[in-house]
Design a protein that fits this description.
This protein has seven helices and eight strands, in the order E-H-H-H-H-E-E-E-H-E-H-H-E-E-E. Strands 1-6-5-4-3-2 form a six-stranded mixed sheet. By secondary structure, the protein is an alpha/beta fold. Helices cover 35% and strands 24% of the residues.
Length: 214
């Protein structure tokens, strides 16, 4: 998949100037670039045969990204704090992925109301705190959908987007005290999701398109 980047507090510049940080971040970007339309279509159709009635490619992207990152030593669903009391009834203090001691990462295809907390979670994981951390990181990364992917990928209108996250960076400048990179995934070039009404709900279906017209 193609993507675009936005940095906060010079995150990209800092990462590129450190060989260790840059290697890990470059591998992440190459992994996202390697996500092919055929790979997404294949998983989407497989899930449909298994009885899943996905509206969008959100779950497919989550699954593929998770599979690839865990194979690259990223820790999945890591609590921010060691104290389990903070993780009992809320996901607010849990990260989608951590690369220990360096990156906190959220894969954010959820409602736009979660934008602020998604941005603040890497800050909690990276700033000093009176509560002991499970991992102390240095950078935040948010992977989300561009507006075009939201439309072509069949997502709900209410999901947060790359463009929305970028706007929040300005509003929360003083609160987001660590370097953060926003990665906006672009729409697939060879297919889109169309919706059909079934049993009072919208179900997504693959529609192949001519990539030369995109």
């Amino acid at each position: 998949m193609e993507y675009q980047l936005e940095e906060h507090r010079y995150a990209l510049k800092i990462i590129k100037n450190d060989e260790k940080y840059n290697k890990i971040f470059k591998n992440l970007c190459e992994t996202l670039s390697s996500l092919s339309d055929n790979e997404i279509i294949e998983l989407f159709e497989k899930r449909k045969k298994e009885g899943r009635k996905d509206k969008s490619i959100s779950d497919c992207l989550n699954s593929l990204i998770s599979e690839k990152l865990t194979s690259m030593n990223w820790k999945k669903e890591s609590p921010i704090f060691k104290d389990g009391e903070f993780n009992k009834n809320s996901s607010d203090f849990r990260l989608d992925f951590v690369y220990p001691d360096i990156f906190s990462l959220e894969v954010a295809f959820n409602h736009n109301s979660a934008t602020v907390i998604n941005l603040l979670k890497p800050v909690l994981a990276s700033e000093l705190n009176h509560v002991e951390k499970a991992y102390q990181t240095k950078f935040g990364i948010i992977i989300t959908a561009t507006k075009n992917l939201k439309v072509k990928g069949g997502f709900d209108n209410a999901i947060g987007t790359f463009e929305g996250y970028c706007k929040h960076l300005k509003v929360l400048m003083n609160q987001l005290t660590i370097p953060i990179v926003i990665i906006g995934l672009k729409a697939p070039k060879t297919f889109e999701i169309i919706h059909k009404q079934e049993d009072n709900r919208k179900i997504g279906y693959i529609k192949k398109i001519n990539s030369y017209n995109c």
